[in-house]
Amino acid sequence: MAKIDPRGRKVKILATLGPASRSPEMIEKLLRAGADAFRVNMSHGDHETHRETIAAIREVEKAVGRPVAVLCDLQGPKLRVGQFAGGKAVIRHSGHFTLDRDPTPGDETRVCLPHPELFGILSKGQRLLIDDGKLRLKVIEANEDRILCSAEVGGVISDRKGVNVPDAVVPVPALTEKDRRDLAFALDQGADWIALSFVQRPEDVAEARKLMGPSQTALMAKIEKPAAVERLAEIIELADGIMVARGDLGVELNPEEVPPLQKRIVATTRRSGKPVVVATQMLESMIESPAPTRAEVSDVANAVYDGADAVMLSAETASGAWPVEAVTIMHRIAGQVESDPGYAERVHFTVVRPEPTTASALAQASAAIADTVKVSGIIVFTGSGSTARRVARERPAVPVLVLTPSPQIARRLALLWGTHAVSTRDIGSFEEMIAKGKRMALRHGFGTAGSKLIALAGVPFGTPGSTNLLHVVTLSGKELDAQGD
After folding, report:
1. Strand, helix or coil for residue 179
2. Which of 90, 142, 245, 475 has an alpha carbon 20 to 30 Å from 415's alpha carbon atom?
3. How far apart are CA 436 and CA 428, in angstroms?
4. pLDDT per position as a tens digit, 288-328
5. What does the pLDDT look like over 113-157, one tens digit per residue?
6. Which listed residue (10, 110, 222, 390) is catalytic?
7. Catalytic pick from 29, 58, 80, 180?
8. Share of the chain above pLDDT 70, in %
9. Topology match between the domains 79-164 and 358-481
C-alpha cells in the first residue's frame, strides 16, 4: 500500500470522527484526502465505540506510514435547565421567567435550574443565554432560591436545554465526574491530546494536568468563555496548546466580537510557540452540501493567513453527508492560500521575538537562512518536540522534517504547523546525525541530489533542551543507498 508523502502545505487539518466517518475505510479516505489528526468527541458515544475508533485510527496509521494525532475532547461542565410538564413551553417576549430549585416540571413561567452553584453568584443586569443563545434572559433579582428574569428574547424552551452564563465566573470544576472517567479512558487508550472544555481560569488547566500525572499526553485548553479570554496568557502558559472554540464563544459574546478575538488568541498562542487550532462552523454548510459557501472559504483562508497551526472540522466530518469532500476542500483552500505570493508577509504580521536562549536563537537563525539561501527544508532532531516547536514558531518559508525517537512525540506534532514528523532510531554522534538527516530527507521527499538543507540538533545527543548546533548540508543522492532508519 502506498505511503502518504509530506502534504505540501503547512497548516494541519483536524477532523472529527463520528457515525459518518469512524470506519477504518473512511478514516483512511480522510487521511489520504488531507486529514492530519482526528478528534474523538467524548460528548457523544460510549467508551466501547471510542475504543474501536481509536484502534481503527492506529491500524490505518500503520498502513499509511504517517504519525496521526488522536485528540479526545472532554465534554466539560455543561449547564442545563430541568424538564417541563409538556416537554416544552413558550417564554413570552419581555415577559418574566423564573429559574428556581424546585424539581417540579416547569411551565411558561418557571423551570428548575439543577445547578445550586449558580444561585447567589448572579446579580441584577447579568445575562442567561439558553439553547445556544436562542433565548436571552436578563436577571431582575437573584437569591439563594430563585433567579427572576426578564425575557429579552423569548421563544420555545424545551427539556434539558443548555444554559450559558457569560457575565460571571461559574464556580464549577472544569472536570465533571464524567470528564474524569473519560480522561482516564483517553489516557489508557494512548490519546495524544486531551482537549479541556469550558476553561474559565488557569486553575482549571492545572487541575487537569494534575489528574494526567506523568503522562506524555498533551493538554489543549479550549477558549470558549469570556472569563478565559481575560486570563489568556496564564492559560497558555499552563497548556500545551490552545483551541479557539468559536461555538460557545460566539454564544456568550456579540458576533462581531469573535473575529478580532480569534486573531488575538491565535497571535498570542503563536508567540508562545504552542499549537493553536481554529474550530467550529468552518465549513458548516458541507454537513448537507457538497460545496461550501464563499463566506466559509474566506473563513478558512483567514485562519490560514493568520498562521493558525490547524483548522478543525466538526459535524462536517463526524455526521455530515460529505466528510471526504469537506477535508478535500479544506486541503485545497489551505494549499491555495499558502501558494499566494502575499502569504509569507501575511503570516508574519504576528511578530515573534526569540527567547534569550541558544535554542531559540538558532531556530530564528534557521528561518532567516531559509529566507536568504535556497534550501529545500529544515531537519530537526528532537526528543521532546521543543526544538520543532521553536522552529515552527518562526513560520519558516520551507517545510520542517522532524526526526524523533519517540512515536508519541511524532504523533503530537501532527498538529504543529509546517512539520512532517518521522519516528526513527536515536542518533549518537554528529556524523550519524548528518548521514541520517540526509537519508531521511531524500526518503521523505525533502530534496533531491544537490539540494541544501538546514540541520538543527543538540550536542550531547539525547539531552532534552540542548539545541546548540546548526549545520547546512548538501544532498548527494547517494544517501538512499544506505540502510536503516
Report:
1. helix
2. 475
3. 11
4. 999 999 999 999 999 999 999 999 999 999 999 999 999 99
5. 999 989 989 999 999 999 989 999 999 999 999 999 999 999 999
6. 222
7. 80
8. 96
9. no
Residue 482 above 60 pLDDT? no
Residue with cell 534557521: 366
What's the CATH fold of domain 12-76+173-346? Answer: TIM Barrel (3.20.20)
Verify whether residue 222 is a known catalytic residue. yes
SS3 88: strand
Query: Could you tell me the fold of the domain covering 79-164?
Result: M1 Pyruvate Kinase; Domain 3 (2.40.33)
pLDDT over 90 (residue 13) = yes
SS3 209: helix
Q: What is the pLDDT of residue 468?
A: 84
Q: 178, exposed or middle or buried, with CB in 10 Å at 0-12, 13-18, 19+?
A: middle
CA distance 225 to 167: 10
Amino acid at 201: R
In sequence order, which residues have a C-beta less than 8 Å from that of residue 327 and are 6 or more positions away? 13, 15, 30, 33, 34, 35, 313, 317
As given in the structure block, the three cell numbers for residue 132 are 445556544
User: Does the annotation mark 280 as catalytic?
Assistant: yes
Mean pLDDT within 22-37: 97
Catalytic residue check, 382: no
Angle (CA) 107 113 117, round 5°: 165
Domain topology for 358-481: Pyruvate Kinase; Chain: A, domain 1 (3.40.1380)
Of 9, 22, 39, 395, the catalytic one is 39
- Given a cut of 70, whether residue 473 has pLDDT beyond it is yes
Please state whether the predicted TM-score (pTM) of the whole model is above 0.90: yes
Cell numbers found for residue 401 = 522534517
What are the residue ranges spanned by the domains of the chain? 12-76+173-346, 79-164, 358-481
All cell numbers assigned to 485: 532508519
CA-wise closest residue to 170 among 211, 120, 129: 120
